[in-house]
Amino acid sequence: MMLSLSLIGMCINGEDGEYEGVDGGAPMVETEQEAVYSAIQGFVGTGWNGSDLYPDPCGWTPIQGVSCDVFDGFWYVTDLNIGSFQENSLSCASNAKFTPQFFKLKHLKSLAFFNCFSKPPIAFDSGNWSAFSSSLESLEFRSNLGLTGPIPTTFGHLKKLQSLVLIENGLSGGLPDNIGNLRHLKRLVLSGNRFVGKIGDNYGYLSELLIMDLSRNSLSGRLPLTFGGLTSLLKLDLSQNQLEGNIPSEMRNLKNLTLLDLSNNKFSGGLTKSIQEMSSLQELVLSRNPLGGDLMNIEWQNLQGLMVLDLSSTRLSGEIPESISQMKRLRFLGLGHNNLSGILTPKLVELPNLSSLYVYGNNLKGELKFTQGFYNKMGRRFGAWNNSNLCFPNGLMPMSFGPFGVKACQNIMLSEVSLGDSGFKLGNEDQNIDSHYPISFGSFESNFDRICLIWCLFTTIIIFV
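Structure for Disease resistance R13L4/SHOC-2-like LRR domain-containing protein, as requested:
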């Protein structure tokens, strides 16, 4: 009997006091178990009693949001997701914090917090983040407005980090230069914070980076020329900042880039020809920048994969080139609020996937030569209003079904009548008022003289007879 109890005890507690699953699974080191309990309590509150609720956090009583793996025969926590990711996820307390025990989870690979830190504000740089330097691969904080202060410089020590996502938090300050030392980084998303200052040259050395999103901050200065070294990059979003200067010609090296969004900045200097060499582009969004220049210096036909082209409010001038109609995958074309002139090429009808076309607020002129089927297909997604000299054929469709804000062409045939120097004419268009009437009046005078002469002769004869 005693032998049986001893065997059961070994199955439950292990030889050294670690918990071992009833199915003979790996045990969990006691210090690791205490660390995960304490860490989660720091986030969700002391009322959470993990040891009672989850006596086997990596086994038969797993904690929602916690994943584990075996190292050297023992369970260790590798993934920790805190916040309202799912309905039964662990929700954070109002005073959530990082406890010292949290930084003892030495095998942690993935860490994510969603809507966890709201108030009171907690400084992000508090804590020993370097403790994760040899393990952490993914670090994510989303919608934590109470998470304030700058990005900890110790993040630059996370040499295994592949994904750094800090979206819509209360973070501020400049971007640490040593983030550029994370050479294995594949995703860098720092959008929706209050970051200021310039983007360091080191960020152009992240040769394995696939996604860079620094949008919706207050970053300023010029784009580093080193960005030409981001040859693996697929998506680059720097929109809604205060970046300025020319778009570097070195961007031509980004042959794999599918998304380039630089909208809502202060870029100038016109469209760089290097754009036409970015042959993988699917979305090019440069709207609301004082770029200036024109569209004619770009060989748009080279961008056969482009689906979205938004150049609205960029102070463009000149005509719209027909080469745009050769981008057969184009779905959205935004050229509104510019100074574009000339006619709108009817070849745009030939774009099979085009579903939105906006050219409003320009100086386009002439008659729109699109088919009625084109207007039916586009509906209000064709915007050409505020082009005072642009019109659509009056007989093509009822005016009530015409393009919104575009007037019908009026073919008014005026009489060819001229008044003086104004060119107003009557009768033969080669005769004006100065030549026509005297000739007629002269003929009238000659006939009148003849009549008078005949009448005088006739009356004389009568008298003498």
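The chain has five helices and 28 strands.
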